[in-house]
Amino acid sequence: MKHPFRWIALGVGAIVVVFAVILAVNVGTDPRAELNTSRLLGKPAPSFTLTRLDGTRLTLADLAGKTVIVNFWNSWCVPCRDELPALQTWYAAHRADTSLVLVGIPRDDSSSAIRAAARTDGMGWTVANDHGAEAASLAYGTRGQPESFTISPNGQVVGSIIGPMTTADLDRMAAVGQGL
Amino acid sequence: MRRAAWIVLAVMVVGVIAVAFWPHGGHESEAAHMHRLASELRCVDCEGLSVADSSAASAREQRRDIGVRIRRGESDETIRNAYVDTFGENILLKPSNRGIGLVVWALPIGALLLGAVGLAFALRRWQRQPRLTASADDERFVARHRSSAPDE
Hints:
The structure holds 2 protein chains of 2 kinds.
Chain A: H1 4-28, E1 49-51, E2 57-59, E3 67-73, H2 78-94, E4 100-106, H3 111-120, E5 126-127, H4 131-139, E6 147-151, E7 157-162, H5 167-177
Parallel strand pairs in A: 3-4, 4-5
Antiparallel strand pairs in A: 1-2, 3-6, 6-7
Chain B: H1 2-21, H2 30-40, H3 57-71, H4 76-87, H5 100-128, H6 136-148
């Protein structure tokens, strides 16, 4: 090696270039982008076993053949409170449609707070309040609340939204589940 | 003497590397196993906390889930992969040693090695060549001074 310092400088330069390329690529893409896209899209929906507020059991298998919108929420969560009017309006418009099901699953809330919120806010849709809710929240890879998923009639996750939904979002979530 | 110092330095470096990378032996309890894996995962409801350090409901559920998976006999890699499949690479507190994660690990090590090699070359060159060498003018000046100076 006649000029070792030249080779070393070349090596250091190459490393700097590689770092610069990685930095440029990562600046060009949102580093938190993967947080906003569910990894479950296109995969079979994780099963869950929940207890409704009336004490009856509900599993995902019970809902086979229907389009299911799963909404993870908490009574103390401000964005969830912001989302509530849209859920109420959308549910009122679709409650007669037996091919659509809306399921509210708390991520981290007390049973009494969930019951009180469901009663006060007139949540006519299915709401769970047991330990299965936390397991479901983990299985769906939720990172906060509200976070919602659409499960198609054949049990695939076909839609997901992080943050409060509008009625238009809910319509889109239902449509993608029904393959419209 | 100088060679002995280099040998001592080499032994110290090798020792530190061996201690750092030697596989941990002995039996690991289930709780310790769960805690170790939970320490590698990011709490999704916290800022900068691991699942092991968080008291959030989601972290509690993750710890319970890791325990169930350990009892089911799943390997560490399988458990990590299950979380990456659900949450993405971001769930890992340390970058993985695959794909772009490998570059993150390898580049600093490569830079350190190159720096060490460069330093070794520089030290050798400095040893061979004195920093100051006398020019022909210097030599002539000293010779002239010596010849004109009175004998001591």
